[in-house]
Amino acid sequence: MRQSRYFIQTMREIPSEAEVISHQLMLRAGMIKKVAAGIYDYLPLGLKVIRKVENIVRENMNKAGAVELLMSVVQPAELWQLSGRWNHFGKELLRFKDRGERDFCLGPTHEEVITDIVKSQVNSYKQMPVTLYQIQTKFRDEVRPRFGLMRGREFIMKDAYSFDIDDAGADISYQKMYDAYRSVFNACGLRHKVVDADTGAIGGSFSHEFMVLADTGEDAVMSCTKCDYSANIEKAQVVDNGEKETVELSPLEEVATPDKHTALEVAEFLGVDIKHVPKTMIIRCEGVMDGKEEKTIFVACMVRGDHEVNLTKVKNIVKAKSAEFAEHYEVQDMTGCAVGSLGPVNMPLKVYVDNALKYVSNIVVGANKESYHIKNVNLDRDAKIEGYFDIRNALSGDKCPLCGAEYEETRGIEVGHIFKLGTKYSESMGAKALDKNGKNIPIVMGCYGIGIGRTAASAIEQNYDESGIIWPKAVAPFEAVVVPVNTNDEEVIKKADEIYECLLNMGVDVLIDDRNERAGVKFNDADLIGYPLRVSVGKKTLSDGKVEVLIRRTKEVILIDADNSAAEKIKEILDTKVL
């Protein structure tokens, strides 16, 4: 491809709207263009990257025995009502009516549609296992779309679904997808971890996330320093261990704490270790079952002053659909007190206490009265609590639940998520099949997703420098760019064209920058866009019989002979160097 005939518009300034490096560089490199909040056009360079990621995914899905299909992005409400998610998915589900006043939505995911397909086609164990997948556009009306392709409202996703007659078969299908995902991200050239994860709105019995490691990642990953255990911060277990303080229990004492609202402020004001000043937080939990009805409840959660409440753990303990910190006015309505003076003594809500607070005595808690706290509280003596639970975020140095070694925290970007769904959707939607004994039973399902655009963006977050993107060769828009440095020199143009044509014939995905621009402009654009290899043909090096090859990742410069074997040597560098 000749750049003079291609569509590449780069920019030098950092766009003010872009917060993370991948968003900045994709805009600057002319890969995407914003249409609306969280919605982007894929420009030619960006689309090339997307297609390369898709092809890697497609190859590995096919190798794992999955079969591709394509489902409609528009889905009827009836299917979502069958699964029970129409009223529970939340505002992320973009709903609309057609001209006949029938309810539809834009698909954020396709469990309902795929279950309906299999329900109508599969009725016996003899037709299973079946794994179907698609690569398609989704839409989720995110409340805060941000970070470009990282968290958009419209996005391209590969979603796969497995169907088995029993759990044993489902476990095999799950493992095949697990292995395929490892192969996908290895083939993309991305350093990644597989971590235990919460199942979230998709549901199911367990799940794993695939995290691309990057210092700029929005997700915290807790990994054991000794064994293979890893989990995202939502799921990472905190081992319940410690020793109860052996001190005499002191009598309660109410003290004034004017204008002291945080645990740290109270601890410093009273001269107490912050570990003895727990935080009491009010959590709104929605979708809690009460008989056959769902309702919203509020609970109080306590963690040490130097710890943070984990909302996902709270949600799972109370069996809610979602859990969020209550708004200030809700706290006032529920407790009669403002945030900052809450405590468990005479708390009108159920109180869930983190395990770490088992081991401290004579603690300081809010008095449920503005600007007052109570000293020398001992929970088992002075408060009515639901019990002790793991409800905090894990920290570096906490103990691994498997081997007892310490956690370390890294940052990651979720690019893939796999779920063992069980019979959550097949039961509610009536997808059944005959087993070997002739019994009609719900089909056991799995669900497997990869964010295509997210994978491309995460490759940038993991691979960039001050000059621009450093694409792994497998997903680069072009593997190499040939740059004729002196566009007014016939010999330079002839040699650059010759190398370019030879590389094309060898199957190299190559671009020639034949624009009538200064060399500096071309070099800057090549660095910004991030081609793994830059081949510079200039009058000066050519006079010495040489062509310059720059490896983008290492900045290594290799001079090769400008003879008929030049293209072969460039191809050899592409094939053998770490790009």
Automatic annotation (TrEMBL):
Any one GO MF annotation of this record: aminoacyl-tRNA deacylase activity
Keywords attached to this entry: Aminoacyl-tRNA synthetase, ATP-binding, Cytoplasm, Ligase, Nucleotide-binding, Protein biosynthesis
Write out the annotated subcellular location: Cytoplasm
| Keyword Cytoplasm appears in the UniProt entry | yes
Q: Which GO terms describe its biological process?
A: prolyl-tRNA aminoacylation
Its GO CC terms are: cytosol
Which Pfam family is one of those matched by this entry? tRNA_edit
Where it mainly occurs, coarsely classed, is cytoplasm
- EC code: 6.1.1.15
Claim: Plastid is one of the keywords in the record: no
Record-stated family: Belongs to the class-II aminoacyl-tRNA synthetase family. ProS type 1 subfamily.
Quaternary context:
Homodimer.
- Free-text note regarding domains: Consists of three domains: the N-terminal catalytic domain, the editing domain and the C-terminal anticodon-binding domain.
Instruction: Report what the protein is called.
Output: Proline--tRNA ligase
**What organism does the UniProt record list as the source?**
Mucispirillum schaedleri ASF457
Q: Which gene encodes it?
A: proS
